[in-house]
């Protein structure tokens, strides 16, 4: 089913409500408009916004580019801070997109979805490794995902369910809005800025078509054993019963991502033996303890319960501890 008329939902009352729902004292965009200054002429501002949207004259301002610390090596993560007016529109669009796509999204995806958080992802991963036939883990990292989203493919995916040109035009303008850094305007040919209120749902839509559906409908049918996927935003782990299946998937994944202008970060991606037989097999081969992997801030390792049964155990990842200690010292 496709939705032909959505833009009319962004009416005066709804956008007024979105304005009040936005948090106070948040960083302002390029024009420096805060929630407090915007609501001094709130009714006029909202009326003007609605009339511009109706006559297709609404154009989002470029996002303000700021950087936040990414890891202990001093790398920075770019964020895009939209103008307050753009935040209102995005705040209105995100629930509409969620309402449509929550019916489509698969159970393997957890990030930025209602009532599906990190803890749920970790619980499901535990069940797969402890209670299913899992012997190999493919721990994948997509290189600069939010900066690499292909706008043409993004719009193509959205048209699968939404055919309202006015609604799609607003999303396209957000994607093409660019950003300001040190008083210079930069165009954006790819990517969706982290910090935008609709970026998480757009990222989920993109990976739903690129990864989730492909894994469910294509990968699972072409391998010998069992396979499971757990994805949180652009961070995901795949579990396989057979070693050759894991390697075949990894080779196919690189080709699949390349098709949609995405790339695997080779230095952060690995295939490791992990599961109930990993410890035993490693000791037989004289290799000591089996390797570990990091997912959602935790290092996962093979352990045993008090009764001697296999358990997936977790400890806070060294990177996270190091960055928190550094912050505390500062």
Automatic annotation (TrEMBL):
Q: Which residues form a coiled coil?
A: none
Select a single GO molecular function from the record's annotations and give it: RNA-directed DNA polymerase activity
Q: Which Pfam families match?
A: RVT_1 (PF00078)
Q: What name appears for this protein in its UniProt entry?
A: Group II intron reverse transcriptase/maturase
Q: Which NCBIfam families match?
A: group_II_RT_mat
Alphabetical UniProt keywords? Nucleotidyltransferase, RNA-directed DNA polymerase, Transferase
Classification via PROSITE patterns: RT_POL (PS50878)
Compositional bias (Basic residues): 309-323
Residues covered by region (Disordered):
309-330
Organism annotation: Natribacillus halophilus
Q: Does the keyword Plastid apply?
A: no
Alphabetized InterPro entries for the sequence: DNA/RNA_pol_sf (IPR043502), Group_II_RT_mat (IPR030931), GrpII_Intron_Splice-Mob/Def (IPR051083), RT_dom (IPR000477)
Q: Answer whether the UniProt record assigns the keyword Nucleotidyltransferase to this protein.
A: yes
Domain (Reverse transcriptase): residue spans on this chain: 49-300
């Amino acid at each position: 089913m496709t939705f032909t008329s959505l833009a009319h939902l962004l009416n005066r009352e709804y956008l007024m409500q979105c304005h009040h729902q936005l948090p106070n004292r948040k960083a302002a965009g390029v024009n420096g408009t805060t929630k407090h200054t915007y609501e001094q002429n709130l009714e006029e501002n909202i009326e003007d916004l609605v009339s511009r949207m109706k006559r297709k004259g609404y154009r989002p301002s470029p996002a303000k580019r700021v950087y936040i610390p990414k890891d202990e090596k001093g790398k920075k993560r770019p964020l895009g801070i939209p103008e307050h007016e753009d935040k209102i529109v995005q705040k209105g669009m995100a629930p509409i997109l969620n309402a449509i796509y929550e019916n489509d999204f698969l159970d393997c995806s957890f990030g930025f979805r209602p009532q599906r958080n990190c803890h749920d992802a970790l619980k499901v991963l535990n069940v797969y490794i402890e209670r299913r036939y899992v012997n190999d883990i493919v721990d994948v990292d997509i290189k600069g995902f939010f900066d690499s989203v292909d706008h043409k493919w993004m719009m193509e995916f959205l048209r699968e369910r939404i055919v309202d040109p006015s609604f799609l035009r607003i999303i396209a303008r957000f994607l093409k809005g660019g950003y300001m850094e040190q008083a210079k305007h930069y165009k954006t040919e790819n990517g969706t800025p982290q910090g935008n209120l609709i970026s998480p749902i757009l990222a989920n839509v993109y990976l739903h078509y690129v990864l989730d559906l492909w894994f469910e409908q294509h990968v699972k049918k072409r391998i010998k054993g069992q396979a499971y996927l757990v994805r949180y935003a652009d961070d995901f782990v795949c579990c396989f019963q057979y070693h050759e299946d894991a390697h075949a998937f990894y080779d196919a994944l690189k080709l699949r991502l390349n098709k949609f202008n995405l790339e695997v970060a080779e230095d952060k991606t690995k295939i490791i033996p992990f599961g109930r037989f990993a410890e035993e097999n490693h000791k037989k081969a004289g290799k000591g303890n089996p390797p570990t992997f990091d997912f959602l801030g935790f290092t996962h390792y093979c352990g045993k319960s008090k009764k001697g049964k296999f358990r997936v155990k977790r400890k806070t990842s060294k990177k996270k501890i190091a960055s928190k200690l550094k912050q505390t010292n500062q």
